[in-house]
Amino acid sequence: MKMQSDDVMRLLEEKLHKETFLNFEKNVDDQLGDVTKQLSRKSNIKDVCALLDMKANTEEVNKALDEIHEEMDKVVVTKSELNDALQEQNAINEALCAENCSARWLWKSGELQNGFAIPWEI
């Protein structure tokens, strides 16, 4: 009988204590609260439907594209206008290129003239 009662006592000690259970319950409640907060931040079906109702449909997009094409058709560049623009750009390029001339001189000997001047040899 003593042996059986010792076994029962040992089993009871191994069982979950009330305080441990209450801590577990509080932890689960906290986690459920976090999940609830995260779910409340998500969009609901009403929000999604409202956004879908506001989006452009195919007809509206096609109409906007047609308007863009009409505006582009109104702008016509003649061959002479294009040639004038190209000539003007060429003149600008030539002016800028003339400003970018440079030369390279080499100092091969490594010696100085008069103790401080570098003689460019090539």
Features:
122 residues, mainly alpha, 5 helices, flat
Short description:
The chain is mostly helical and 122 residues long. It has one domain. Helices cover 69% and strands 0% of the residues.
Structure description:
By secondary structure, the chain is mostly helical. The chain has one domain (2-94). The chain has five helices and no strands. The longest helix is centred in the N-terminal third of the chain and has 24 residues, at 18-41. The mean pLDDT is 83.
Compressed to H and E, one letter per element, the order equals: HHHHH
Q: Rg, please?
A: 43 Å
Query: What number of domains?
Result: 1
State mean pLDDT (0 to 100 scale): 83
How many strands in all? 0
Query: What gross morphology would you assign?
Result: flat
Query: What's the N-to-C terminus distance?
Result: 114 Å
Task: Kindly estimate the percentage of residues that lie in beta strands according to DSSP.
Answer: under 5%
Tell me the helix content.
55-70%
Specify the number of helices.
5
